[in-house]
Design goal:
The protein is an all-alpha fold. It is 59% helix and 0% strand. Helix 1 (28-49) runs antiparallel to helix 2. The two termini are 29 Å apart.
Length: 75
Amino acid sequence: MYEPCLCGATDCARCYGDLAVPDDLGDDRTLDALDVLRDLINDAENAWRKGQREKALQRLIEARAEMDEIVWEAA
C-alpha cells in the first residue's frame, strides 16, 4: 500500500515518493509552528526590502525562537 503524497498522486509516480508523508502526520502543532515560522520569515524579508531593518531583525529573532520551539518539541 502506498502512503498518501503531497503531490496528489496515490502512487507517487509524479514525485517518486519525495513528497510522501505517513498516514498520521503526528503532532499538528509542529505544522502550525512551521506556518508561523514561514510567515515570520516572509515578514522579515518584506520589512528588509522596505528598509525597515529593525522590524526585519525583530522578525528574525522571533523566527529563531519559533525554530527553537519546534526542535525542542520534536526532540
